[in-house]
Amino acid sequence: MNPTKKLFFFTGTLALCMVFAALVLIPTREASAIEPAKQSPNECLECHEQAGKLWEDSRHRETNVSCTVCHKLADTTGKHPEDAKYTVESETDTCLVCHAEVAGKNVAGELAISEHGKVGLTCLSCHEQHSQGLKLAPGSRTICENCHKDETREVLESTHFAAGLSCVNCHMGADKNHTLIVSVTTCGECHTDLHDAKRMLDAGLDIKVMAKPEAMVEITPLPETPAVPETEANAGGVHLPAWLLVVAGVLIGGIVAWAVFGKEPGNPSAGKPS
User: Fold this and answer.
1) Distance between CA atoms of 143 and 257, rounded to whole angstroms?
2) H or E segment to which residue 34 belongs
């Protein structure tokens, strides 16, 4: 390479390095490769103490679902709370994002096909949003009795309640199914002897006969056998058809008449000499 070409090569290389260094080292307000830092959840807890305490003991806290996962800053150019406000997102953009498939269980789908879903109840109808626990009334064990008052009064006098069970034991089962449909599998978790259910009878308790449960299988009754009149059932002797008795009487009478009036057979009489 001749000296002129070497000079141009080194000059161009040096200029390129200087331009690259300027882009990296010189600060600018118009471009940034780093996302602006989000507000820390600890800052939220300074003001929202009540919500923070509920969240601290929640399942969301254990799985690192913080305030900013569900609440979005409406104006990213300002600072909260002076210039920017956080939005209260709908359940579609919060609960259902995870509780459909991400969390491993389609709770949203189960709720949608349940009777609760059909009448318009949502996640927050039963769950407190920050603790994710149930919205229990004072003295209540489950959220169910807030609406199902008649059923609750009956349950309080039931064997299940005396054994320490509540609505969720049967209506949600071990898998916490949000359709609230009670299945035979749910019953079988406790009642392992379903076909030998006679403890109430053994205890001598009065059993109320059910008119016809909806779940009872239709049983076709056996054809009834005509009842035998009491006079015939208690009559003695041999029961034979009348015509057979007539034939037997004729035969017996004929034999007796032949024996009494008939001639005994003897020697043939000798003929006259010819």
Assistant:
1) 102
2) none
- For 112, the token pair is 């949608």
**Residue 143 dihedral angles phi and psi, to the nearest 5°:** -75, -20
Q: Which residue bears the tokens 């305030």?
A: 67
Which pTM value belongs to this model?
0.50
Interior/surface letters 212-241, b for 16+ CB within 10 angstroms, e for the rest? eeeeeeeeeeeeeeeeeeeeeeeeeeeeee
One-letter amino acid at 61 equals R
pLDDT at 64 (0 to 100): 84
| CA gap 69, 78 in Å, rounded | 19
Q: Which residue has the higher pLDDT, 129 or 238?
A: 129
Query: Does residue 146 contact residue 137 with C-beta atoms inside 8 Å?
Result: yes
What is the per-residue burial (b if ≥16 Cβ within 10 Å, else e) of 60-91? bbeeebbbeebbebeeeeeebeeeeebeeeee
